[in-house]
Amino acid sequence: MKIKIAESDREKRELDRLLWEVLWRPLDLPRGVRRSFGLRRPETELVALDQGRVIGGLVAYQLAEHEFEIRHLAVHDDYQGRSLGRLLVEELIKEISQDAVVWVQAYARNTSLGFFARLGFVPGGGLVEHEDFTRHGIKFQKMWLVVPPIA
């Protein structure tokens, strides 16, 4: 298994398909819904590959010079429970680490609060609702991770 920045069009298409299949298809959201959740900011797309196949992925945006947001994180059902999500977040931190403190935020689904807490994220506000998710019992908690400067 390898984790890296998505470079080829094929990797980016497979990442997009994986995000839809894991995050939005079970909620009956349309295939192109990812575009409506995007930001007009610099974007980092990471993929976890197994024999060239995308089995996990993470999309993060740079909000400001030292501030980033994990917008989407998904692991194929067959690979869950193998620390892929943690490895994707760790790879993002390596990619964005600077000689200054970096803040990483995520709007964690209520179903993934424990995952982010185990990685050191702390709550940073109340629960956030989005109509496409609330009807499925999903709310979001803004969470923060402070990444110290690289030595």
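^ that was protein a. below is b, sequence first then the tokens
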Amino acid sequence: MQVQALAKGIAISPRKAGLVASLVRGRSVADAEVILDHTPKKAAKVVKKVILSAKANAVNNHKLREDSLQIAQLVVGQGTSLKRYRPAAFGRALPYKHRTSHIKVVLSGDENKPKPKKTTKTAGKAGAKKG
């Protein structure tokens, strides 16, 4: 089964977030957490947050086993670009774009199998023996 989480409008450029996403793409969730904890980039904190959100969706909403979760898909797309201006010499204004990102994480894993209920057969044995 596949479960997803989506973060939109994150204030980091898609290029910077994509570099961090490529470090953990295709790995298990536990490995990804360790890698992102030790990655000194701003995007690492954001990507980890989205992965943990997908993990919580999988465990709590869809009853998947936590130890079996793998990152099936990790996509960093371009969000809206905010158009801004920077002051320049001679009273000019130079335009630039403040870029944002959309991050989508899809996890796959195994479902928890319910434990079989124990049945007691003591009532049937007591009635069968007559002497």
